[in-house]
Amino acid sequence: MDRKPIDTEDRRPAEQILVIDDNCGIGDCIEMLLQRAGHDCVIARNGQDGLAQLRSREFDMVITDLRLPDANGLEIVAISKATHPETQVILMTSFSSVESAIEALRCGANDYIIKPFDNDDFLFSVQRGLGERRTRMENVALKRSLKKAFTQQAIIGESDGIRRLLTMIQRVAATEANVLIQGESGTGKELVAQAIHFGGKRAHNPFVAVNCGAIPADLIESELFGHAKGAYTGATSASEGLIREAGGGTLFLDEISEMPLNIQVKLLRVLQERQVRPLGSSQSYITDTRFLAASNRNLKESAENGSFRADLFYRLNVITIHVPPLRERGSDVELLARHFMLVFSRKFGSPVRGMRKDFVDFLYRHSWPGNVRELQNVIERAVILADSDQLTVSDIEDLIPAQAKSIAAPDDGSLPLSVEEYIKEVVRMHQDRHGEAELAAMLGIGRKALWMRRRQWGLYRPGDSRGAGVAPTVADQEDRTTRLQ
Asked: DSSP 3-state assignment of 276?
């Protein structure tokens, strides 16, 4: 085994090591070696003193002799692991045997050293053990940060649709049920899947995402179910596949509607039997994997017309979650836009800190067919191209819908100065000839948004008795409710 030289400059001086040995000479030698390597060292001369130290504080590592006058080193190993599982334990002995080494490892010891030992071998063992502990602690911290990043807090919004979505996520996260996530492209279906995974008891296990539409049809079986060595030309080694890779955790099948029908049959068998058989293998493996699936198509209709297996649909469709499109989320569009603005301002070191009224008006007017993903891209582009600390429509002028420009253009060929003026001109010119729903559709906004703008500008239809302080009609309220559902 290759040994890297001890580099004391790279070592963390705060690491605490407890040494339990009744031999004063060996104890003093170990203390000197560890202090030279930059560690804090506590010496216990007997087992009871060592156990008292373990009860009073947590150590990064415990080094104990096997035979002590008042205790058994194996007992100390077991107690140390029971109270502080992440603490590394090295057992030392002058009476080596295969049986004692095996017993030490069974009790939880991380390493086994025979006395007398070589100083470099001893320090190498210590360095390796502490390195393993640091890696484990970093992994724990990373998982905690991932859980925090992908919980419901990562889903930004205050609209009724998002509130219902968060409530549903909270309910299903605590279960083991299969979940089908439906929604248009760009609405954040994978973010919902992550929130379900990291909000449940599988949060510390893998979350594996796969886009079924991005894998060639002749490779998707091997990717999902794995393959045996030699299963096909080029299979020079065995692969466990994504289903087994997500064992104990969650497999998210995005765009599952794109999965070939023959693969759907095999996936259905896995869901029913909880066993997976790799391609070219005669052996099946038990798998403990939770399945979440998503599609931007209506899978029920696909199942009815035969383009998706009905039995697989019903197996996946234990619980269905609908992610609302951005156009139905009201003021969430501005909330999300300001969030992305701050994120990209920090990322690119941009001075942008706000948005002018014309830019905010554009956010509400645009129908966002690409949903949150489109909004994110627009804000990133605007931040990069911004000429001041305030985002304006001029930063994204080429993204303004051509229809709005052409409809709102005055007879002299000139264009209004802002997007809001486009909307106002369209309303003024066409509200007498078009119905409320038709005019709202022309503008790409909801009927309530149209009503609010007409009230703001005083552009009421002839004979319209509603004043500035009158609430929307029942039809307006019903329209809003329908769009949020």
From this structure: strand
